[in-house]
Specification:
By secondary structure, the protein is α+β, with helices and mostly antiparallel strands. Helices cover about 25% and strands about 40% of the residues. The protein has one domain: Alpha-Beta Plaits. It starts with 5 loop residues before the first strand and ends with a strand.
């Protein structure tokens, strides 16, 4: 692993279950950088929350976040470590 990697938490709020397959495809494409993943269905609101923790260079983190953020039906926020 290169020394210039950062740990980031990518939070995905899924409001349209139709985009879940695309989310899974994107995450699979970057699976080598994923430390862990947790999904929580919130049935009362008919949404799901997916939290993904990655260890990667900033350009990779930005790629994953950008691809996820462009999906219709999902809202994505990313928080990165400072080092």
């Amino acid at each position: 692993m290169p020394e210039n990697t950062r740990v980031a938490s990518i939070s995905i709020v899924v409001e349209n279950p139709g985009c879940v397959a695309e989310i899974n495809d994107i995450l699979h494409a970057y699976s080598e950088f994923i430390i862990g993943r947790m999904g929580i269905p919130y049935r009362q609101k008919n949404i799901s929350i997916i939290s993904v923790v990655v260890d990667a260079e900033m350009d990779i983190i930005n790629q994953v976040s950008g691809r996820l953020g462009r999906l219709s039906g999902a809202t994505v926020k990313t928080a990165c470590s400072k080092k």
